[in-house]
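Weekly structure sync, notes
Attendees: PL (lead), two postdocs, one rotation student
Agenda item 3: pending single-chain targets
PL asked that the sequence for the first pending target be pasted directly into the notes so everyone works from the same version. It is reproduced below exactly as submitted, 435 residues in total.
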Amino acid sequence: MNAASGFWRLCVCAALALHGLAQAAEEPGIAIPELEKKPFEIGGYVELKQEDFRLNRGAPFYELNFPDQSGRRTLDRTTGTLQLNGKYTAGIGTFNFLTNSDITRDQTTHDHDNKFFEAYLSLKPNPGFTLDAGKKTLNWGKGYAWNPVGFIQRPKDPDDPTLAREGYTFVAADFIRSFEGPLQTIAFTPVLLPVSSDVNNDFGKTGHVNVAAKLYFLYRDTDIDLMYLGNGSKTPRFGFDFSRNLGTNMEIHGEWAHISDSQKQVVNAAGQTSLQLANISSYLLGLRYLTEKDTTYIAEYYHNGPGFSDNEATGFYQFVDNAVAQYQTTGNASLLQRAQSLSQGAYGRPNTMQNYLYFRVSQKDAFGIVYFSPAVTLMANLNDKSFSVTPELLYTGINNLELRLRLYLLNGSRVSDFGAKQNSSRLELYARRYF
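Predicted structure, written out during the meeting:
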């Protein structure tokens, strides 16, 4: 029996168990309370977003994405999004789901996407035990913009860390105990995550059932997690995080992760690639401070152990220049296609280098306007000194409606992290209607 079929058999068994438990809970003659919650709940939002991109002509990623349109200066994109979330409860079981549907159109593309971000069964026979089976988004780690210990979750978008993310399919349990004394709570979460050609095929190597676990402590008002991912689709790794309130309005948090035999593919200006293997560590340290006037400050330092050094990133940018030059001179697209392929991997991910600073300031009910919350975010690459600044305006004063205006401004040399991006700026406006 392969990993995928075994996993889905387990899901079917869980579903049958849920059905049986629900029937057993329906004893005749018992009156249903008037205020009993409905078994089915659904909600979500519909969003319309308009973006205006000012393109960074001559930057490496601009050249990769527009090799035949060197004169293009702007790009306008419209995106419609529908997210639905809901749950059905029967007895001790709950089925939860979260869907995401997007339609995107600009001058170069017209695309659409429909996904289940989450779809899982949750059984809770008692307050101290929960069993989940299906597709679910985990949130391991205490960081706001990054999570080095998020071993079995998709990374956040640092430009918008609160966005919902697609989960992975797995079976997990939660065992929770509470105590009197300095150790107030302990929880253990084992996870089995299969990877095959049909299930979680973007997690890593196929043909494995990956074992992961998290051990949580609440000790003297400090939250502590220990995480582990065994060898399988990815190389083994372990780490920890913590969070503690230093006072009524200040919290500090941190994460540390160690990855054994981390693999990094590096390309030089000539297009020659080498595979580097090393045991590396990533870590994060941050704080959150809320003033008496409802101003929130968030600051984080992040060291990305698998990230590229200045020289390694520069080698890729030089290779892009050579590939584009060959294509525009001879029409030979072989190097260009290879560079585009590399840009879809590690070189094209957000924050692909090694040391970053994140700083955000937001003000609730600014200028005496209720539900009006302006903010500004700075993200800086501490290696090459490039950065982005994002001022934003958020208004939620209309019932179930959220309006947000943001302006992304990127700065740096053309061979720096933020200066090499396709865009020099992006203006974004969206309206989100909740229901």
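Discussion points:
- Confidence is low (pLDDT under 50) at residues 1-32.
- The helical segments are 3-25, 60-65, 310-330, 334-343.
Action: rotation student to compare against the earlier draft before next sync.
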